[in-house]
């Protein structure tokens, strides 16, 4: 009797087993594609200049055109950052949404900043030092975050979205544009130069434009050169060995 019971149950068990196996197969996470060979993000060339333009969610919402200028927080928002790099001398000019200007000079390992409405240079803090790649806030670009390649502005771009679901893939032109816009972080890197083209992070979009590179080394402005000269004189004074003075024998 036991043998007959097991034999009769087999036809009923087979569909259940097949359904279970199919469910397990569908549950397997989609594998992310491997990025093309080469650096994920190339460092800025020794002689280069680029402009980063910031766009904020309220400004892109056409249904509420007044929202871009209403919040007081816009006073501290950045509109553009123009970076000029000549080896270990880098100048960053930051313009706010209201036209205020900030100057930052990175000379060797030191940073000197002049805030808006100020005539004084001060030595910057180590936590805001110029990144090795030249591009700020892009250390989250990794192999694991690569999801495919699309064309942006007519150029093929590598797309990195570390927060994208495994099921999100890129195929064709831009059928997943809305899905990408909904993600907290997306970076488009030029597939040939490996330089950033566009970065979206928490609704704020940064557009990168690279200009013709400078041909000569940057020279700090005269007032900063005076400050550097004074600092060097003080450093030289304290670095000299102390001379011992002897009284009359």
Report on the structure:
The chain is an alpha+beta fold and 249 residues long. Among the domains are: 47-135, no CATH class; 143-210, no CATH class. It has helices spanning 2-27, 57-60, 177-181, 222-239, and strands spanning 47-55, 78-86, 89-96, 101-107, 110-114, 122-123, 146-152, 155-160, 185-190, 196-201, 204-210. An 11-stranded antiparallel β-sheet has the order 6-5-4-3-2-1-11-10-9-8-7. The longest helix is centred in the N-terminal third of the chain and has 26 residues, at 2-27.
Topology:
Elements (H helix, E strand, L loop, with lengths): L1 H26 L19 E9 L1 H4 L17 E9 L2 E8 L4 E7 L2 E5 L7 E2 L22 E7 L2 E6 L16 H5 L3 E6 L5 E6 L2 E7 L11 H18 L10
Antiparallel strand pairs: 1-2, 1-11, 2-3, 3-4, 4-5, 5-6, 7-8, 8-9, 9-10, 10-11
- Biggest β-sheet description: 11 strands, antiparallel
Strands in their spatial order, largest beta sheet: 6-5-4-3-2-1-11-10-9-8-7
Unreliably modeled segments: 1-29, 64-71
Radius of gyration: 29 Å
Please identify the structural class as seen in this structure.
alpha+beta
In N-to-C order, the SSE pattern is: HEHEEEEEEEHEEEH
